[in-house]
Amino acid sequence: MKYRFDISAEDPEKAGYASTEIKKVLKSLHINPEHIRRTAIAMYEAEINMIVHGGGGTAEVEITDTEIIIVMKDDGPGIPDLEAAMKEGFSTASGTSLELGYGAGMGLSNIKKNTDCLHIETGAGKGTTVTMRIRYI
């Protein structure tokens, strides 16, 4: 099964829509609740990062017989220092994002903790593609 969502930076109040919809799908498939939790956390964190830093983008989710594959793509400015961005507490969020409660610097580290495989393609001026895999069998 494949799903695709557009993630808009224009309406930050809709942050989490895609991860909530995938959570519903996984529940309907009777996936183990722990795998659902991990998927929802990782995907939500990526959605927030896309809204706060990437100007929005797309989320594509494929559910196979053994894993959940999530690919999040944006055309934003990219992550200039990925190593620093992976550290807990590191944030480049704007004042507006911080006022909305985003930008605690836990996004990428939470994604890493909740996925079995994480691959990030990025660079200054190149946008960012985050590929996450959560095995459930």
Task: Give a structural overview.
- There is one protein chain.
- By secondary structure, the protein is an alpha+beta fold.
- The chain has a single domain (2-135), classed as Histidine kinase-like ATPase, C-terminal domain (Heat Shock Protein 90).
- 36% of the residues lie in helices and 27% in strands.
- The chain has helices at 17-28, 33-52, 82-85, 95-99, 107-114; strands at 2-8, 56-63, 67-74, 117-122, 128-135.
- It has a five-stranded antiparallel beta sheet with strand order 1-2-3-5-4, covered by helices on one side.
- A hairpin with a 3-residue loop joins β2 (56-63) and β3 (67-74).
- α1 runs antiparallel to α2 (33-52) and α2 packs antiparallel against α5.
User: Strand order of the main beta sheet, please?
Assistant: 1-2-3-5-4
Largest sheet: 5 strands, antiparallel
Q: Quick one: how many beta strands?
A: 5
CATH class: Alpha Beta
Shape: globular
At the fold tier of CATH, the topology name is: Heat Shock Protein 90
Q: Which structural category do the helix and sheet elements fall into?
A: alpha+beta
CATH architecture verdict: 2-Layer Sandwich
Run of helices and strands: EHHEEHHHEE
* Cα-to-Cα separation, first versus last residue: 16 Å
**Roughly what percent helix?**
25-40%
Q: What name goes with the CATH superfamily? A: Histidine kinase-like ATPase, C-terminal domain
Unreliable runs: none
Q: Count of helices?
A: 5
Q: What value does the Rg take, in angstroms?
A: 14 Å
Proportion in β-strands: 25-35%
What is the number of independent domains? 1
Question: Averaged pLDDT, please?
Answer: 88
